[in-house]
Amino acid sequence: MAFSNEQMERYSRHIILKEIGVKGQRRLMDGSVLIVGAGGLGAPAALYLAAAGVGRIGIADADNVELSNLQRQVIHSTPDVGKPKVQSALDKMKAINPDVTVETYHTFVKADNILSIISEYDFVIDGTDNFSAKFLINDACVISHKPFSHAGIIRFKGQLTTYVPGYGPCYRCIFPSPPPPDAVPTCSQAGVIGAMGGVIGSLQATEAVKYIARIGSLLTGSLLTYDALSMEFRKIKITARQDCAVCGERPSIISPADCEAAPVCEGIEL
């Protein structure tokens, strides 16, 4: 199907990139991404994916907008306080690009619903704020052979990696199990610089765009870390563990399960 004149203008900066072009933009428009968490990481990711023209974007979050969210969760604004985050996010995404389809899930992503939710999407972005959700997303994506981007931020540090089935380690290869409760400070205890979500969440969106458009190299087999205070990025090579409980040679985790774990601030700190 040919692009309309409006679409040609809207996506012109993508189309003139030889790596994307008309074919890559069509792939984006035919593609789908699920964002779990409409917070510090999910907010910029959702905005950029909508702007990029990803045809179908799902956003899952059970929370409502709070005043303390606005320091970093840039998809929400002051009038949105008290509104479900998924509704606030939908409004901003459709305002940026009315052509995209936005599916909302105003619910906690749990073991009993995650497989059915992620099955509808080509790529998953983990923008959650607790370890139990991060391990659940990892396990469900590995079991379902679904690519996803993991990321975490706290204080002045951030990290991310991308899992693609058959092409590198999963989250459990790096962190085999959740930490015990109270082992890691919460966001309200440790704090986080607001712009960190923009940096790392935008990188997650970039990974999703590259995967769907089939361009460039993804962060498979690498953990990218960022220290805002020193303004340093590091790319650390990581390898799959043969004894990994979910992607190893003899996996012991064959279905997603909810677990109790320490809360964190949009992720974890190295």
Description:
This protein is an alpha/beta fold and 270 residues long. The protein has a single domain (31-237), classed as NAD(P)-binding Rossmann-like Domain (Rossmann fold), CATH 3.40.50. It contains ten helices and eight strands. An eight-stranded mixed beta sheet has the order 3-2-1-4-5-6-7-8, sandwiched between helices. Mean pLDDT is 92; it is low at 261-270.
Query: What order do the SSEs take from the amino end to the carboxyl end, as H and E?
Result: HHHEHEHEHEHEEHHHEE
CATH-derived topology: Rossmann fold
Q: What is the residue-mean pLDDT, rounded to a whole number?
A: 92
CATH architectural grouping: 3-Layer(aba) Sandwich
Shape: globular
Give the tally of β-strands: 8
Return the domain count.
Answer: 1
Which residues form runs of ≥5 with pLDDT under 50? Answer: 261-270
What's the short story on this structure?
The protein is built from ten helices and eight strands. With 270 residues, the protein is an alpha/beta fold. The protein has an eight-stranded mixed β-sheet with strand order 3-2-1-4-5-6-7-8, sandwiched between helices.
Layout of SSEs?
Layout: H1 5-10, H2 12-15, H3 21-30, E1 32-36, H4 42-52, E2 56-60, H5 85-96, E3 101-105, H6 114-118, E4 123-126, H7 131-143, E5 148-154, E6 157-163, H8 171-174, H9 187-190, H10 194-213, E7 222-227, E8 232-237
Parallel strand pairs: 1-2, 1-4, 2-3, 4-5
Antiparallel strand pairs: 5-6, 6-7, 7-8
Helix pairs in contact: 4-5, 4-10
